């Protein structure tokens, strides 16, 4: 019995994901954070990524599963009765309804925890985003997207490490919010995978559910962080995701990557910190329009100069009358 989707199918899905989510016109991405976090990033030459179960929408994975269920239902309605793949589409709906229940019941028990996310935005000025950080007194760091991704890729590449006991992947994508875009991508993923799922059915009829998990669930899981609910569209989020793949030693220490925790006023979050051996590709620092501290610009300028960041633009944003931008 085949025990995974073929590389060809996975590559096709990867290509579709990139076509739908990685806009080549986006050259720079923006990270809203606090002044103290900027200090830590510059001083330690590192970036922190947060455990995916501590995102502001803890149930975002369910959004992906619901898209699979509704899309499979729509595809089934479009087909003639008793035609090829109908049984799979029915089984898929049942299977993912169970997965939604399983995810909710196991959320606090560590299930699904191998993804770490760096949340960026495709815009540099947003009142809701400013409000979310440091009581509106935060800052926004502009990064060169391609260069940052390249730096991450080099730090998680274990191909030349014969002692490595795990596989680590880095992905980047623009999040999808509107239902039509999400269903369009899910439909393509299902259509690409159906022939191989059908092959597993014919080989072993008694293992339909396990077949679905092996053939499709792991692939869906890898891209589930693309799908966000519409109420979060103001974030215009662009994500860098590091995946510590399953079936590996979770306690293995990796060079350049530290596992740990950080605290917020109301919780403790698990995270990883990626350390770099050269300055980060920072292009500009933007200061919240409601930050009234007169020394903040000078402090940031001195910090950047001390650590060798030359010609970085520092700009105090003006208050916008638009709610989301």
From TrEMBL:
- The source's domain of life comes to Bacteria
Database matches in InterPro entries: DUF2971
- Lineage of the organism: Bacteria, Bacillati, Bacillota, Clostridia, Eubacteriales
- What name does UniProt use for this protein? DUF2971 domain-containing protein
